[in-house]
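Hi there,

I know you've been waiting on this one. I reran it after we fixed the sequence typo, so this is the corrected version. Both the input and the resulting structure follow.
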Amino acid sequence: MDTIHKNSDENRELLRDYLKTFKLSSTPGENVTISTGGFIAAIRLLKPNDRPSDMVLLLLNGLESSNEKFNEIVKSLRGSLKSPAHEDYVADKGLTELDLVR
C-alpha cells in the first residue's frame, strides 16, 4: 500500500511539473490543439485540490510561439487576467461553484 501511495505522490508531482513547464514550442509544428490537449489532460488527471491555482496563467505563459501575431493575442489574454472585470468574474464564479457543492 505504501508503494501505491508513493507512486500517486510521484505522479501528482510529475503532472504539476508538466503544467509548470508547459511550452507550446515543445509540440511539433507548435500545434495548439495537440499541445493544449496535453495540458488539459494533465489538469483532469489531478484532483481539484492538487491543481495549481494559476492554471490559466501557466497555460498562457506556455503558449509563447514563433508567430508574433499569436503572441500578441496571448499577451492580451494575459493582460485581461489582471483586469478588475476578470477578478469580479472569478469571484462570482467561485461563489456559484460553492453553491453547487452544498
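Quick highlight: Helices lie at 2-20, 32-45, 55-62, 68-81, 84-101.

Best,
R. S.
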